[in-house]
Amino acid sequence: MEHEETKSTVPKHQVSSVGVRENEVCIMEQAANQTTKSVGVRSSIIVSTRQRGNSLLKYLRNVPWEFGNIIPDYVLGETCCALFLSLRYHNLNPEYIHLRLRSLGQSFALRVLLVQVDVKDPHFSLKELAKICILSDCTLILSWSPEEAARYLETYKCYEQKPADVLKERTEKDLMSRMAECLTTVKYVNKTDSCTLFTTFGTLFDLANASREDLSLCPGLGPQKAKRLYDTFHEPFLKTSTMTFQ
User: Where does the ERCC1-like central domain start and stop, copy by copy (predicted)?
Assistant: First the structure.
């Protein structure tokens, strides 16, 4: 985000020139492509010189950072960057963020719009920014203080080289756990029931071929659960609609 003082000195007739703005965007896109090549992989956050004076910089303490000649406000990795936007500034200059997003081009796989909520009634503006981010393939992150904004930047940088294992679903390898995970998807069937069924029938094949009466004889199961299990195993995977031709 550029400071309001510098933005307010720009004459209106210069901003309204469509041709000049298009040229600026093209130049910025080319520069952004060069930025990703020159930055590469670094241990520090690269901060644009336009961010001088941003109060969040004094809270960047857990990772090193340095100023650089870059198009985004922050480069957090080889494929990740961030733009910083004050919501108060956005309300005064609504066209600013459009130009900044376009200037990024397709240089970064992950583009973060870090918004500092510093107005009393932010709902309308945030709804508008959410739509902009969806259309621009950009991730919207909200912060309510410079300290919180700095923590987000540090976290993105710290997790730059981390694998996605912590986000993946953990699948148990033992048969009992996998059987319980499968059977508990049936309504009213719990893990105790699945353990009883596994002990009684031994295999999923024998369980699927059991009669409704055999299922209801299992301790704690009862006729209602037995009916649901039996129907689950014997209903077709795809429902076919019956059509009447005249």
Answer: 44-157
pLDDT tens digits for range 26-53: 444 454 444 444 444 568 899 999 999 9
Widest Cα–Cα separation across the chain: 84
Joined tokens for residue 24: 């600026």
Residues near 29 by beta carbon (within 8 Å), at least 6 away in sequence? 102, 103, 104, 105, 107
Architecture of the CATH domain 175-234: Orthogonal Bundle (1.10)
- For 205-237, letters b (16+ CB in 10 Å) and e give eebeebeeeebbebeebeeebbebbbeeeeeee
Note the pTM of the prediction, 2 decimals: 0.56
Domain ranges of the chain: 4-162, 175-234
CATH architecture of 4-162: 3-Layer(aba) Sandwich (3.40)
Question: Which region among 22-26, 194-198, 206-210, 233-237 has the lowest average model confidence (pLDDT)?
Answer: 22-26
Instruction: Tell me how crowded residue 137 is: count the other CB atoms within 10 A of its CB.
Output: 11
Phi, psi of 207 (to 5 degrees): -65, -40
